[in-house]
Amino acid sequence: MIGRYCPNCDLLILHKDKVESMMVYSMEQVDPSLIGNDYLIVGTVERKGWRESRKQTSNYDVIFDNMHDFKEVVVFESAHWGWVSDD
C-alpha cells in the first residue's frame, strides 16, 4: 500500500478507508471472523517479509522478523482547513 510520506514528521499517511479495504481483502482469504473488529496498526513490514508471510499464513515469525514498529501512535482527524493531530 502506498501513501503520502511526510519527511518532516517521518510519517506514512494513509486514509482509513484504503487501509480497511486492504485489510478486508486480506482477511477474507485468511480469517473472515477478523473483519469488523477493532485494530491498531503498530508498524510496517518489509515487502520481502510480507510476500513470504503470504506463503506461510500460519507462521507469524516471518512477519515479526520483518516488522518495524512505529515510535508512537498518531491519529489525525479531518478539519475543514487541513489535517491536525489529536494533541
Describe this structure in words.
The protein is an alpha+beta fold. The chain has one domain (4-85). The chain has three helices and six strands; from the N terminus they run E-E-H-E-H-H-E-E-E. It has helices at 16-30, 47-55, 61-65; strands at residues 4-6, 11-13, 43-45, 67-69, 76-79, 82-85. Strands 1-2 form a two-stranded antiparallel ribbon. Strands 3-4 form a two-stranded antiparallel ribbon. It has a two-stranded antiparallel sheet with strand order 5-6. The longest helix is centred in the N-terminal third of the chain and has 15 residues, at 16-30. It is globular, with a radius of gyration of 15 Å. The model has no long low-confidence stretch (mean pLDDT 82).
Map the helices and strands.
Layout: E1 4-6, E2 11-13, H1 16-30, E3 43-45, H2 47-55, H3 61-65, E4 67-69, E5 76-79, E6 82-85
Antiparallel strand pairs: 1-2, 3-4, 5-6
Total DSSP E strands:
6
Coarse structural class: alpha+beta
Helical proportion? 25-40%
> DSSP helix count?
3
Strand order of the largest sheet: 1-2
Reading the helices and strands in chain order gives EEHEHHEEE
The percent range for strand residues is: 15-25%
Count of domain modules: 1
Unreliable spans are none
Report the span from N to C terminus: 27 Å
| Overall pLDDT metric | 82
- Shape field: globular
Q: From the alpha-carbon coordinates, what is the Rg to the nearest angstrom? A: 15 Å
Nutshell version of this structure?
This protein has 87 residues and is an alpha+beta fold. The chain has 3 helices and 6 strands; from the N terminus they run ββαβααβββ.
